């Protein structure tokens, strides 16, 4: 039976309408908040969520899924949980936590999620990188052979026992108020201006990433002023998770700073990443783990606190010539109590790193700045031919 021209036209029209019906719809998996408190939300219904995936609450606050349990998911909230209440909808974002990276980040001050907090507007052209990635494999690496000049005589002297190479992990350890941050870490960043001016190519420039964890906002503001006055911000990125920020942001900040530094390493350039300090990150992680009801261990730290730092510091590497020959050098800072380097966190981080620079209170009070005890400090690069 043949259709009339009018009927055929209507049939074609209906077919086209049906074909294009709801073609742009989006399906989101959502759950509901069962309980919330102390920055932790228990959510029911997110059966397909990934570990470390970002979620968004109805109030716009975001969080990260850390505990995947049979009945519910433990979500750590990035921000205040006062706007979240029982029964609220929670939506999966489908993406693991990532941050912006690239040269557009230079000279900027951002939080642990890469959001600018310096009042200079949004970031320009940049790419996104996951905060948690696997460290480079053995084949992708090359032995440390290039020196990283810090500008400190106690470190860079030819007769010194603690030289640092590009791609190395050198721990800075000591009591508070002994110049760990000011006399060693910040001076190293400031001294790179002279080192970078000598370079003949961009591949010789050392870009710096400073991660401030659990510090006062006034301290971070003072640091920004110091770097600005010395024109050191032009090759530096500041990642700040201050003492007033929630524990999840203090936990996340080192990984975010590492991801930003890895952009330079993976593109044939060189980066220096300073983590100030990892003791406060461990305390923030302990707080999160206890609230998530994970079994506590020594000093109430969770059992994976060693892995917390090892997976971070293992990402510092000198890449092989086949993979770009870039490098990322890590200078983690650990604060001790009364010079006790045998405490839990220091003894965890010391075997992960390639040596340590020890600062002592007694030397500091005697007017020796930086207060480095060369006898207690060491570096595996001291036996390597750095050229």
Automatic annotation (TrEMBL):
GO molecular function: ATP binding; proton-transporting ATP synthase activity, rotational mechanism
Sorted UniProt keywords: ATP synthesis, ATP-binding, CF(1), Hydrogen ion transport, Ion transport, Membrane, Nucleotide-binding, Transport
Ranges where the ATPase F1/V1/A1 complex alpha/beta subunit nucleotide-binding domain occurs: 155-379
GO cellular component, one term: mitochondrion
Subcellular location: Membrane
Start and end residues of each ATPase F1/V1/A1 complex alpha/beta subunit N-terminal domain: 27-94
InterPro entries to which the protein is assigned, alphabetical: ATP_synth_asu-like_sf, ATP_synth_F1_a_nt-bd_dom, ATP_synth_F1_asu, ATPase_F1/V1/A1_a/bsu_N, ATPase_F1/V1/A1_a/bsu_N_sf, ATPase_F1/V1/A1_a/bsu_nucl-bd, P-loop_NTPase
Pfam short name (any one): ATP-synt_ab
NCBIfam families assigned to the protein according to its UniProt record, in alphabetical order: atpA (TIGR00962)
PANTHER family named in the record: ATP SYNTHASE SUBUNIT ALPHA, MITOCHONDRIAL
Family: Belongs to the ATPase alpha/beta chains family.
Biological function: Produces ATP from ADP in the presence of a proton gradient across the membrane.
Protein name: ATP synthase subunit alpha
Native species: Nelumbo nucifera (Sacred lotus)
